């Protein structure tokens, strides 16, 4: 008679081997068929177009059907035929409409506002000081590769206003409060 310890070990081994055996036996009994055995064939391989014969009581193929099958075969041999994004380009570009740009070329390009973070605005008797990215700035100092000038530091609104030297564009940024 088997001991309880030996029975427990056999049960553990059977627990691991039983699912593996079931999957493998299913694989063998199903004769290894499935997606790995599937193959794709073209329309031309499915029918003999030169004979133009009937199959199982179907009517003979019309000229239009033959042309469609030939087109499908040619399209299937193209390099992008297996892509869902396959399309044929138009033969001539004369039929296409003229592309009109969204913005006119007379508009000046918009300057990129420098990225910075205002931590604190200190109100003093000698003028307000803004702590921007850990560096103290006063009114008149430049920021953003010397392309923007600080024109106002507002202690009540907790904001600074900067102006572009190139275009005169003004931007107001506020202290990041974390709310």
Radius of gyration: 38 Å
For the sheet with most strands, the description reads:
4 strands, antiparallel
**Count of domains:** 3
By DSSP (H or I, 4+ residues per run), the number of helices equals 3
What is the structural class? alpha+beta
**Can you list the strand order of the major beta sheet?**
4-5-6-7
The amount of helix comes to: 10-25%
* Helix/strand order: HHHEEEEEEE
Assign an overall shape.
flat
Q: Please tell me the overall pLDDT.
A: 76
Q: Kindly, what is the distance between the CA atoms of the first and last residues, rounded to a whole number of angstroms? A: 74 Å
Quick tags:
179 residues, alpha+beta, 4-stranded antiparallel beta sheet, 3-stranded antiparallel beta sheet, 3 helices, 25% helix, flat
